Amino acid sequence: MNxxxxxxxxxxxxxxxxxxxxxGLLDLEQDPANAxxxxxxxxxxxxxxxxxxxxxxxxxxxxxxEFETAFxxxxxxxxxANSALIEVALDAKDHIHxxxxxxxxxxxxxxxxxxxxxxxxxxxxxDTETPVKPKAKAKTTKAADAPxxxxxxxxxxxxxxxxxxxxLIYGTNPALLLEELAEIGPTRVTALTDRIPALDVxxxxxxxxxxxxxxxxxxxxxxxxxxxxxxxDTMELTLTRLxxxxxxxxxxxxxxxxxxxxxxxxxxxxxxxxxTLAAQSPTPKPRQGAGADTAxxxxxxxxxxPAERLDELMDRVGELVIAQARLxxxxxxxxxxxxxxxxxxxxxxxSGLRDTTMGIRMVPIGTLFSRFRRLIHDLSGxxxxxxxxxxxxxxxxxxxxxxxRLADPLVHLIRNSVDHGLESAEKRAAAGKPPKGVVRLSxxxxxxxxxxxxxxxxxxxxxxxxxxxxxENGLIAPDAKLTEQELHHLIFAPGFSTAKEVTxxxxxxxxxxxxxxxxxxxxGTIDVTSKPxxxxxxxxxxxxxxxIIDGMLVRVGNGRYTIPxxxxxxxxxxxxxxxxxxxxRNFLDIRGALVPYLRLRExxxxxAEPEPHQKVVIVxxxxxxxxxxxxxxxxxxxxxxxxxxxxxxxxxxxxxxTILGDGTVALILDTAHLVAAGQSYVDRNITGRAA
Amino acid sequence: xxxxxxxQPLSMTALTIRLxxxxxxxxxxxxxxxxxxxxxxxxxxxxxFVGGLINVRGRVVPLADLRVMFGMNRxxxxxxxxxxxxxxxxxxxxxxxxxxxxxxxxxxDIEAASxxxxxxxxxxxxxxxxxxxxxxxxxxxxxxxxxxxxxxxGARNAPVAxxxxxxxx
Lengths: 691, 169
Prior knowledge:
Helices cover 46% and strands 20% of the residues of chain A. By secondary structure, chain A is α+β, with helices and mostly antiparallel strands. Chain B has a six-stranded mixed sheet. The interface between A and B is large, with 39 and 36 residues. Chain A: It comes from Devosia salina.
């Protein structure tokens, strides 16, 4: 991907702005009078419109224009933000997204959204929110929204502006601005030299000259807006209508109240628009200043880097770690103390570099959480269930790739909670619960893992129904004895769904089994806890990163394999003679608990003679524990995980490969798969013996 | 890198390698490097065709043995054995793979005129694995169809179930 492509840059920015916009809208729904939220929503719209037009996304700019106007009304208190407006704005946000992603496609639906918006602006808020509001006010609102009135008498407008101090640095050309202003109508330009400092303190890169431009036009407000599109937030600008008024009147105006201005003006139509500009120019100063400050600080302390470069960096660090391991190995064999010292130094440096690099890839999970607010909002509307969505632990950091891959499973779990977990408001009321259901999404560190939970206070899993369904599908035998845990876990079986009827959400052919697979693929586990009547919790436990893990190196026959250390519980010696009197009964007694074991030599079809003293590495995955019999435990090592190519993707016993200190490749065991294989082996064995 | 259609004469710059007792030609443009024999990590339960993994400058790369696909003898590696690291298309995705060669000869141009379509009969190799047969110095050079060879589903899907059965018995 070419990162210098300006269109792509715009897209990237716009995506972020749209996310911001969505978050702002959802917040606004909770708190419709919050001026900060209204302002930030307006700003996001304004920026999308402005840069959209600049990068040739004219459809976007045109579409956003009306929304910007609408939110400008809200900003000025002429319209109230209400749920109808927010609903249509969310639709609009989706529409803008589509327009940005595929500008060449003819994307329809925009007109309906705009028509809907016009209806709401025209009548909606006035009727529902403040019925006492005078009709005249609503009319003004409408007038402002409509195209400029037919040509009326032109007037003289006086524009005075000073450019922001950094305007020249960012490439603003005052001469061009003046030319653009001249296109609006006949102009008379005067330079304002009152701010030019003494020569010895003059900074030539700062624009010190201001301009007074008298323009003859009907209503130049919109045109002036366009000229100063990218400057207006930080510049000083006043616009007054001179008309018959004297110059002193006009000059006394700058800090005058917008209301006074609109009253003073004789023509009713242009009044609100003049007020728009007047209201924007003096007020944004302090507010914008503060906003820009935080933005500047944020820009200085963080850096946006394309994801591919981070991936590349991680790859390089991975290679460095491998090369360092090789060096350490050679140094270990050598008697050269200088070499040993360098090898140790390099080991320290590379492990530091590894940690720092992994740190760069860590992203707060909050970025992912915010996405689900919209989901909940939509689901709530679609299913008619009022839902309160609570998030916690947004600061918890996880590997970027991990966060990306978690999005889909979490969407599914949340959908599931809302669709199957939460009861309808009536049922809740009947059960003595508050009608509003609660869905809680939280993330928390636990050791070298992160636990992410989706909790609902719904009806809980219906174990009887799960059981019936599983029997019906042939997943379990009718007389099988299962613990509650095991019953809960059945929902992850392929093709399993507890929904009695197929709603628009369930029955999409994607089930919890897909969630399970994805989480397995991330080397994570899922726990389910559920209490009838009180709700369920799904907890995902995931490693912090995917790229480098600590591993235990073992030997099986002539091959060396790495077992993820996080999965290793303990190592024991395989009791001698256990074969002799326990044929076909591969269990170990570990402190009173039966642990089945797999002989990796058999699993891998190794021909070489077994070691006399074989070791058992006991690994766990979720609930299950399985012993893996190996010939030798070599030791622990840092393992840079390399994906296997498609040629080997069919082989399930391995989750990847790594390169050892001596440069050879070792396969990484997929413990989840091996545990499952071990358990199924036990099951078969038990049923086999029972039969 | 669009491949010419099957059964169409093509002229190519090729790296010639020997497998068992036959000369093969692989597209030189796809060859990344030629390595001396490196330690090969066996992948348990993988098909013979791609039974190993090697380390190529910090990358884990599958090692393919074309001799399996052509049903040839597989002599033990000797001092002439090389690994040709090349880019092959797998389901349209470029993938780096190593190819075991009993000997690497040279890079040569094979004229389109000298290349013939693989005959449908009278050949010990599966015709779909062969793009054409070139002639040089009175001998034949086989031009394998790498895409087809690496596309074969049987090459990829390991007999996983079988291995689990084995562990159970």
